[in-house]
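Why do we care about 3D structure at all? Because function follows from shape, and shape follows, mostly, from sequence. That is the central idea of this module. The next example makes it concrete: a single protein chain, its amino acid sequence, and then its structure expressed as C-alpha coordinates.
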Amino acid sequence: MGKRTMGKRIYREPTVEQAAKYRRIREMITAEIPEIMREANALRQGRRVKIQEAVMMLKAERELRGLSLAEISERTGISKSAISKLENNQEANPTINTLAKYADALQMELSVTLTDRVGY
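And the structure:
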Protein backbone atom coordinates (compact mmCIF):
# COMPACT_ATOMS: atom_id res chain seq x y z
CA MET A 1 0.00 0.00 0.00
CA GLY A 2 1.54 3.29 -1.08
CA LYS A 3 1.14 6.59 0.73
CA ARG A 4 0.44 9.92 -0.84
CA THR A 5 -0.09 13.24 0.84
CA MET A 6 -2.57 15.95 0.04
CA GLY A 7 -2.42 18.87 2.40
CA LYS A 8 -2.31 17.64 5.98
CA ARG A 9 -3.90 14.24 5.34
CA ILE A 10 -2.17 11.04 4.43
CA TYR A 11 -4.01 8.79 1.97
CA ARG A 12 -3.17 5.14 1.60
CA GLU A 13 -3.73 3.44 -1.72
CA PRO A 14 -6.11 0.51 -1.23
CA THR A 15 -4.95 -3.02 -1.79
CA VAL A 16 -6.26 -4.88 -4.83
CA GLU A 17 -8.77 -6.68 -2.59
CA GLN A 18 -9.92 -3.43 -0.96
CA ALA A 19 -10.28 -1.72 -4.33
CA ALA A 20 -12.39 -4.63 -5.60
CA LYS A 21 -14.53 -4.51 -2.45
CA TYR A 22 -15.07 -0.75 -2.81
CA ARG A 23 -15.91 -1.17 -6.50
CA ARG A 24 -18.56 -3.84 -5.64
CA ILE A 25 -20.06 -1.55 -3.01
CA ARG A 26 -20.22 1.37 -5.47
CA GLU A 27 -21.88 -0.91 -8.06
CA MET A 28 -24.45 -2.08 -5.49
CA ILE A 29 -25.25 1.50 -4.52
CA THR A 30 -25.48 2.57 -8.16
CA ALA A 31 -27.90 -0.29 -8.84
CA GLU A 32 -30.07 0.67 -5.84
CA ILE A 33 -30.30 4.40 -6.62
CA PRO A 34 -33.23 4.16 -9.10
CA GLU A 35 -35.39 2.27 -6.57
CA ILE A 36 -34.45 4.67 -3.78
CA MET A 37 -35.37 7.61 -6.01
CA ARG A 38 -38.74 6.01 -6.91
CA GLU A 39 -39.55 5.49 -3.23
CA ALA A 40 -38.51 9.04 -2.32
CA ASN A 41 -40.63 10.49 -5.15
CA ALA A 42 -43.63 8.42 -4.06
CA LEU A 43 -43.28 9.72 -0.49
CA ARG A 44 -42.95 13.29 -1.73
CA GLN A 45 -46.01 12.92 -3.94
CA GLY A 46 -48.04 11.53 -1.04
CA ARG A 47 -47.05 14.49 1.12
CA ARG A 48 -47.87 16.91 -1.69
CA VAL A 49 -51.36 15.43 -1.98
CA LYS A 50 -51.96 15.87 1.75
CA ILE A 51 -50.76 19.47 1.64
CA GLN A 52 -53.00 20.20 -1.35
CA GLU A 53 -55.97 18.66 0.50
CA ALA A 54 -55.34 21.02 3.43
CA VAL A 55 -55.07 24.01 1.10
CA MET A 56 -58.28 23.00 -0.70
CA MET A 57 -60.07 22.80 2.67
CA LEU A 58 -58.82 26.27 3.62
CA LYS A 59 -59.87 27.72 0.26
CA ALA A 60 -63.30 26.08 0.48
CA GLU A 61 -63.80 27.49 3.99
CA ARG A 62 -62.67 30.95 2.86
CA GLU A 63 -65.17 30.86 0.00
CA LEU A 64 -67.93 29.47 2.24
CA ARG A 65 -67.44 32.39 4.60
CA GLY A 66 -67.45 34.83 1.67
CA LEU A 67 -63.96 36.13 2.42
CA SER A 68 -61.85 37.64 -0.33
CA LEU A 69 -58.14 37.14 -0.88
CA ALA A 70 -57.66 40.73 0.30
CA GLU A 71 -59.38 39.98 3.61
CA ILE A 72 -57.30 36.85 4.17
CA SER A 73 -54.18 38.80 3.20
CA GLU A 74 -55.01 41.47 5.77
CA ARG A 75 -55.64 38.87 8.48
CA THR A 76 -52.51 36.80 7.76
CA GLY A 77 -49.97 39.33 6.56
CA ILE A 78 -49.46 37.11 3.49
CA SER A 79 -49.73 38.89 0.14
CA LYS A 80 -52.80 38.32 -2.02
CA SER A 81 -50.62 36.96 -4.83
CA ALA A 82 -48.97 34.45 -2.46
CA ILE A 83 -52.37 33.26 -1.23
CA SER A 84 -53.64 32.97 -4.80
CA LYS A 85 -50.56 30.96 -5.80
CA LEU A 86 -51.01 28.75 -2.75
CA GLU A 87 -54.64 28.07 -3.58
CA ASN A 88 -54.15 27.48 -7.30
CA ASN A 89 -50.68 25.97 -7.69
CA GLN A 90 -50.60 22.18 -7.48
CA GLU A 91 -46.83 22.35 -6.89
CA ALA A 92 -47.13 24.74 -3.94
CA ASN A 93 -45.06 23.70 -0.94
CA PRO A 94 -46.16 25.97 1.91
CA THR A 95 -44.60 25.95 5.33
CA ILE A 96 -46.57 24.82 8.35
CA ASN A 97 -46.42 28.42 9.55
CA THR A 98 -48.12 29.64 6.35
CA LEU A 99 -50.90 27.05 6.68
CA ALA A 100 -51.31 27.89 10.38
CA LYS A 101 -51.64 31.62 9.61
CA TYR A 102 -54.26 30.88 6.96
CA ALA A 103 -56.15 28.61 9.37
CA ASP A 104 -55.96 31.26 12.12
CA ALA A 105 -57.43 33.82 9.73
CA LEU A 106 -60.43 31.50 9.36
CA GLN A 107 -60.60 30.87 13.10
CA MET A 108 -59.54 27.30 12.47
CA GLU A 109 -56.68 25.34 13.97
CA LEU A 110 -54.05 23.52 11.98
CA SER A 111 -53.34 20.12 13.47
CA VAL A 112 -50.38 17.93 12.54
CA THR A 113 -50.58 14.30 13.59
CA LEU A 114 -47.78 11.76 13.68
CA THR A 115 -48.71 8.09 13.55
CA ASP A 116 -46.89 4.85 12.94
CA ARG A 117 -47.11 3.54 9.41
CA VAL A 118 -48.81 0.22 8.97
CA GLY A 119 -46.26 -2.53 8.43
CA TYR A 120 -43.34 -0.92 10.23
